[in-house]
Amino acid sequence: MRILELTEETKGNILENLLKRSPNSYGKFEASVQEIIETVRANRDAALFDYTARFDGATINKDNILVTEEEIKEAYDAVDPKLLEVIRKSLVNIRTYHEKQRQNSWFDSQDKGIILGQKVTALAHVGVYVPGGKAVYPSSVLMNIVPAKVAGVDEIIMTTPPGKDGKVNPSTLVAAREAGADRIYKVGGAQAIAALAFGTESIPKVDKIVGPGNIYVALAKKAVFGYVSIDSIAGPSEILVLADETANPRYVAADLLSQAEHDEMASAILITTSRELAERVSEEAAKFTAQLSRKEIIQKSLDNYGYILIADNMEEAIAAVNEIASEHMEIVTKNPFEVMTKVRNAGAIFIGEYSSEPLGDYFAGPNHVLPTNGTAKFFSALSVDDFIKKSSIISYSREALEEVYKDIAQFAECEQLTAHANSVKVRFEDEN
Fold first, then answer.
1. Which alpha helices (H) appear in 242-346, and where do they start and end?
2. Who is most buried in 50, 285, 326, 335, counting CB within 10 A?
3. Cβ atoms 203, 159 nearer than 8 A
4. pLDDT tens profile 169-219
């Protein structure tokens, strides 16, 4: 891995390089995505079947697009019982964590018959997109469905592309059933996003779409936002490790590579105050890469978006951490909890040398759907909050309104909205 001194120039160059990975830079694909969306919107099921045959090589029709109970049973028979056990353990942790995020409606009674409040309501219909093909991510199935279930969503519709045999990966199906998906449809890509956004003969329209995907899926979610809500437009995976001389270089190197193996556009960055650590991490990363199954992907990721930055002091290092605003951020320092209080921007923060990033990906409980490409400055991890909406409650008695209606009328007339003014004055016209 390349080792650089942390300066304003190097930081600026890195940020510019990282931003090239943003879905906002995928303009050349937008026309194709828009064509798919419009075709699905116009031709509905027929378009889905055509695109599935074209892109996935699978024959899907109205009779087999919905995953059946028999297919789910087959999936349970095919999945390793040990994996099923791990899925269930992980599910408990994820559910327990997200249950702590629940919000309740509240009401506040005041004098003279004033009641104000907030009504919290779960979304009615949510669509969960799950990648398929070569990718198999049962962990993402859990992370996207569980908070929706905890929130109380009425119906969870899942879509995922089938293999050429017209079937869905067994571990994906098992994870979906364990997490609580109501219906699972065999369709992927931008066409699946369009179907969820507008509805077809087979797939119902939803209120919100969540879940990761490739460039086409990301751009499709961006295009349908406004017709439906979306969670975020995720970019390639990222990890940033903040470490000092106390860190174990093998642990740090292993953690950096855990994200570099996702794809060639993934980013892995170490910021440290120790030159010795920087050099040893670089050496260990090279050794690990040579041994790992996805070494070609890892090497390209490191060549393109891998950095080791040496800072003069911890304050400078933390400032860079906040500027980069990484998806995953590990703190491996003498006093990691103290450092954590100074970290303002990160999707998820892993504290201490035994809190490796995969712990969050699979098992600990916090959600692994996280903001990328610097959006941790203003976005949060997927949570129960993403599956609820809030309505304001206002109730005034006549007595309470009588005291303030002239103030309201004056405000409205200032804005030249006389109908607004009249709406409150009319209730007291007999008294004037």
1. 249-260, 275-291, 295-305, 314-324, 336-340
2. 326
3. yes
4. 999 999 999 999 999 999 999 999 999 999 999 999 999 999 988 889 999
| Catalytic residue from among 238, 327, 330, 357 | 327
Instruction: Check: CB of residue 302 under 8 Å from CB of residue 268.
Output: yes
Residues 301, 271, single domain; the answer is: yes
Confidence of residue 368 (pLDDT cuts 50, 70, 90): very high
Please tell me the predicted confidence (pLDDT) of residue 23: 62
Asked about 328 being catalytic, the answer comes back as: yes
In this structure, the number of other CB atoms found within 10 A of the CB of residue 16 comes to 9
Together in a domain, 309 and 285: yes
Q: Do 195 and 248 lie in a common domain? A: no
Rounded CA separation 388/401 (Å): 31
Specify the 3-state DSSP secondary structure of 229: strand
Predicted local distance difference test score (pLDDT) of residue 287: 96
**Over the stretch 124-172, which tens digit does the pLDDT of each residue have?**
999 999 988 666 789 999 999 999 999 999 999 999 999 999 999 999 9
Compute the distance between CA of residue 16 and CA of residue 352 in angstroms, rounded to an integer: 29
**Beta-bridge partners for 350:** 330
Q: 408: which residues sit within 8 A by CB, 6+ positions away?
A: 420, 421, 424
Cα 292 to Cα 147: distance, rounded to the nearest angstrom: 33
Q: Which residues contact 303 (CB under 8 A, 6 or more apart)?
A: none
Query: Taking Cα atoms as reference points, which of 25, 51, 55, 28 lies closest to residue 39?
Result: 51
pLDDT digits (tens, 9 = 90+) for 74-112: 999 999 999 999 999 999 999 999 999 999 999 999 999
Pairwise CA distance, residues 327 & 340, whole Å: 15
CATH number at residue 247: 3.40.50.1980
Give counts: helices (H), strands (E), the chain: 17, 14
415: containing domain? 398-431
Selected catalytic residue, list 98, 125, 262, 328 = 328
In a domain, 112, yes or no: no
pLDDT digits (tens, 9 = 90+) for 295-341: 999 999 999 999 999 999 999 999 999 999 999 999 999 999 999 99
Residues 309, 272: Cα–Cα separation, whole Å: 6
pTM of the predicted protein model: 0.92
Q: Is residue 217 part of a domain?
A: yes
